C-alpha cells in the first residue's frame, strides 16, 4: 500500500509539463560522456498504466547497469510513515473551509460513486492526496506500474534503489501551491465525475505507447487545470534542474538506470536537454 500511495503522488507530479522542442520518439535514452567511464540510461515511465511490460531494450539497459534510481526510493521502509505526516491540512483546516456547501456535496458524491465512501472521513486531508486517490479509477483495466516492475527487477538482481527526491520534497512541491487552486481542480473532477480526466488519461496512454514524448508534453499542457497552468515552474522545471547534479553523481559512481516520469524528459527545461547542457551526450535508443 505504501508504494501505491507514493505512486499516486508521483503521478500527480509527473503529469505536469510544458510545450517543448521535438525529440526522437523514444522513452529510453543513453547517457555518455562528461567523464563517465560507462554509460547510464534514462527511462521515461508512466506511473499508472494498463501494461507495464518492460521491452527488450529496457531489459538490456537494466542488465548493463548496477543500480536503479527513480524519483523516489521505492523500497524505503519508512515511506508510508513519512507520507502520513504530510497528508493533513494545518491549523485545523478542513475541506469545508475551502469549498461551498454545494461544492462539498458534489465532491462527496464523487467519493461515494467512485470510492464507495463519503469524503467526511477525509476532510482534513490535503486536496492533492484526495485527487490522487482517483487516478486508478481513470483506467479501464487493473492498474500496473513501471516503478513496481523496476523495484521487482532490482530485487531480482540484488541491486540498490535510490531516489532523486524524498517523499517530503515531493509533498513540499504541493505545499508551495495555493490550496485554492488545488481545490478548484478537485471540484472540476467532481463536477463531471472524472469523465474528462478518463478521456485525457486514455489519450495519454496511447501517446506514451507510441513513445512520443514531445506529443505527451503538448497534450499535458491543459490550462483547465489550475494547478498545472499556474505553477509549472514548481511542478516541473525546478525539479528537473535539481535532478541534474544528482544524476551526474550517481552515473559517475557506477552505471545507473534512471526511471522517471516521461513528462520530465522533453522540452527546453526537460531532463534530456538539461543533461546535454551539462556536457553529457544523450541519445535515443530506438528499436
From TrEMBL:
rRNA-binding recorded as keyword: no
Alphabetic keyword roster: Signal
Signal sequence coordinates: 1-20
Alphabetical list of InterPro entries matching this protein: TraB/PrgY/GumN_fam, YbaP-like
Pfam families: TraB_PrgY_gumN
CDD domains for the chain: Tiki
Name the record gives this protein: TraB/GumN family protein
